[in-house]
Amino acid sequence: MPSRSFMHSPAMWEDDAAYRRTLLQIILWVVAVLVSALSLSNLHHADKTVSMMEAAIAIYCLVFLLRLQHTTKTTWWTSGLMLIVGSVIIYGMYSKGLYTDGFYWLLLMPPANMLLLGLVLGGIFTLCFGVLGVAVMVWAQPSIDGTLDTALLINASVSYLFLWAMSHIFEFKRAQMVQRLREIAARDPLTGLHNRLHLENIFQQIVKSHASEKQSFTLLLLDIDHFKHLNDENGHEAGDLILCQLSQRMTFHTRQSDWLFRVGGEEFCILLPTTRKAQAMELAERLRNDIQQLKPYFHKQTLQFTVSMGLAEWPLDGKDFDTLYRQADMRLYQAKARGRNQTVAGQ
Question: Which residue has the higher pLDDT, 297 or 267?
């Protein structure tokens, strides 16, 4: 089955950003309310330093909430939040302002870091706060004879590492599952090619990369000739076989950097990011001639089919997706009108 490596399209990043923003909005409100209550409680117990630090977290959360829907630097803001929260916990353990509760709060850092910052950055924060937090806890609660409390060190380290491992596995599996679902949603189940919903996103990403380099690229539309007749005469299983055979030949004749799509029943599209129209015409003709010679075997008979193609070059034939696609589609129908089994790249 044909395949192409999956590119992170703008829509995917937008989906992930929307997920993070929604999650952050809930967490920020919870943290703001919680630390405000803790700040008042510590102020009542005359621990003014910890109280002021907790008040600073509450203010930071409220400012972050105001900026959340507009900023493009959510990772920086979130990193700042986790840095402040972690620092308050460590300081509270060091000054014994959080008493024995400090380490319990520290155990919240692994899942929070992984959830909000991802595996890499979240892992770095978790490691730093874990090492520092366990060291401070052991130092702040020495054994009776003044020697290192080995049992406390081991228990604290194992507890922290266990939560870190569980949080890492959960986030890894979540990201893996989301990626898999996106792959499934982006591909046609029969041919394995990308589907129509993914086409415009990839087009926009290619335009963005080519605009700065002033390079052109080609969009190719391909349609199987008399496909309805082939289906009616031989059955839908034969039609599915033809579609799969065609997708395999398209994959064979294109490169790993090219993008293949099934955009309709028997209509396909190829985006050639590093190919101008003249070179795309040569590729199209090789593909068309190969398909013309292709004779898949089905139920003791051979099937034969041809394709018609239309090409359009960006930005010469259109600067936006709709214009370029319409131009290629018009040339595809010109190929049909001229007798099919042809490639049209211009007037």
Answer: 267
The Cα 76–Cα 141 span in angstroms is 34
State phi, psi for 141 to the nearest 5 degrees: -130, 70
Cα(278)–Cα(268) distance, rounded to whole angstroms? Answer: 20
**Is the CB of residue 220 less than 8 Å from the CB of residue 280?**
yes
The percent of residues in the chain predicted with pLDDT above 90, rounded, is 42
Q: Which residues contact 57 (CB under 8 A, 6 or more apart)?
A: 31, 32, 35, 81, 84, 85, 88
% of the chain beyond a pLDDT of 70: 89
**Catalytic residue from among 14, 171, 183, 266:** 266
Residue type, 14: E
Q: Which of 123, 119, 127, 108 is nearest to 175 (CA)?
A: 119
**Distance of alpha carbon 324 from alpha carbon 131, whole angstroms:** 57
Q: Which of 253, 295, 118 is nearest to 268 (CA)?
A: 253
Q: Is 285 a catalytic residue?
A: no
